[in-house]
Amino acid sequence: MNTFDPNAIAVRSGHFIGGAYLDAQGPTLDVARPSDGQIYASVPIGDERLVGYAVDNAWDAWRKSGWATMSPRERARILRRFADLVAADAATLAPLEAVGSTRPVREAFAWDIPFTAEGIRFYAEFADKIGGQVAATDREHLGMTIAVPIGVVGAIAPWNFPLVMASWKIGPALAAGNAVVLKPSEMTPFSALRLAELAIEAGVPAGIFNVVQGDGRTTGDALVRHPRIGKVTFTGSTRTGAAIMAACAFSGTKPVTLELGGKSPQIVFADAPRIDEVARRIASAITSNAGQVCVAGSRLLVERSIAEPLVERIAQLFRGFEAGATWHAQADLPPIVSPAQADRIDAIVRATLDEGAQARCGARRATTDLAGAYYLPTIVENVTADSAAVREEVFGPVLTVQTFESEDEALALAAHPDYGLAAGVHTANLGRALRFVRALDAGTVWVNRYGRSNDFIIPTGGYKRSGIGKDLGKEAYEANLRFKSVLIDLND
Predict the structure, then answer these.
(1) N or C: which end of the chain has fewer CB within 10 A?
(2) Catalytic choice (107, 197, 259, 303)
(3) What's the whole-number mean pLDDT along residues 227-234?
């Protein structure tokens, strides 16, 4: 189903608690389709009382259902069934994901749904692989560490990849034996509910995976502050991440995993092989999901001798993008999530141009027959480190260009005062690539590629204001466990 009628997609609203829907009373939020701006549903705003009910329900389920104490292999089998059900449900999940988000249905079928299922399957295999270790002690003692679940994990997922980001949080938490209370973004609330339904169908006990709806100010804040939440995991803006970290510190010093903003450089040297392929790689890294990606390669740093031909190749690719609704298979430039976000993107571009920069292409909204907000892929040149589009995370298809002549100059340009999420290096020189891998202040460095693979074992996470802790990898699983030290006196 690479094209579908958005009006034919039925959504179920409400909270999902204890294995069933709860249609809460009180204030609601309208939910609009980014592709055409049409309001197609509403969700309740979970207040402190509702969040408390969801967390207490999860706590009771965690203590009484046997999820934390069952055989790890049995827990893994249930989660593998969960993953299989997600993969088999693509015909429902992909249109549901596409209709209310910025994810084109073609990409939802090809990547989002398979990636979500495989992420859950990957973490299922950790259930009986990590359990602590015996320590080196003297002969009169036996020392060891044992791994135990945290309890109830509070998870807050973003709107840009609703299903995928939810799976990054629930996969390792459930596999480690925890219960999860998930708050999806109020802009993309519905696919998470379908995930919760499938979890129950797979055999996850009722209450072990609850979903609460609402905004960050009310629902999210109540969730992270609840005393029975043992850990918080969040993906989103740096400002919100800082507020969550402070709330966790003041409500129990609970651990947090935060994947936050980025302003990632792509560094291209003159010896980079296959310049046309490099151009396609760079274009894809800033136009995927219309640039609404935390690791988007938004800063092109290119060796001066090849700057002009490379930038022009990228511009030619940018000019060929066709904006369209997420339910149209032929569209390759999806909408910006909201008119307000499109206005913010344009304001940053305008401020940069007013500072003396020039736009080679784009720098305006796309003209379409749809009421949604679409922004043309944009190249901004003659910028400085102080330019607004270089300093700020735009979260749109805007690429800035700076040039260099030496490795030292490239490294200096790559450094950002606030962000350190990801970086790309494009060169045929292995020694240079390894020098940059070591020197770049980024949590992930890609060499002669840009973007993640399906190797879930490789963790992701940033430095500085780009976050704390890791998603994916063994690190994400271990972050959902507590390690207890044990020392036994053998003399008695």
Answers:
(1) C
(2) 259
(3) 98
Q: Catalytic one among 97, 197, 294, 303? A: 294
Mean pLDDT of the residues in the chain:
96
451 shares a domain with 354: yes
Domain count, the chain: 2
Check whether residue 360 and residue 231 sit in a common domain: no
Active site residue 361: no
167 and 273 inside one domain:
no
- pTM > 0.70: yes
- 1 domain-assigned: no
> For the CA atoms of the chain, what is the radius of gyration?
23
Q: Domain containing 384 — which CATH number? A: 3.40.309.10
Instruction: Please classify residue 475 by burial: count the beta carbons closer than 10 Å to its beta carbon, then call 0-12 exposed, 13-18 middle and 19+ buried.
Output: middle
User: Domain residues for 221?
Assistant: 6-260+467-485
Q: What is the mean pLDDT of residues 440-469?
A: 96
Check if 294 is active-site: yes
Which residue has tokens 């249905």? Answer: 105
CA dihedral 151, 156, 162, 163 (to 10 degrees): 0
Q: What is the pLDDT of residues 396-418, one digit of tens each?
A: 999 999 999 999 999 999 999 99
Q: How far is CA 90 from CA 77, 349, 415, in A?
A: 21, 38, 41
Residue 491 lies inside a defined structural domain of this protein: no
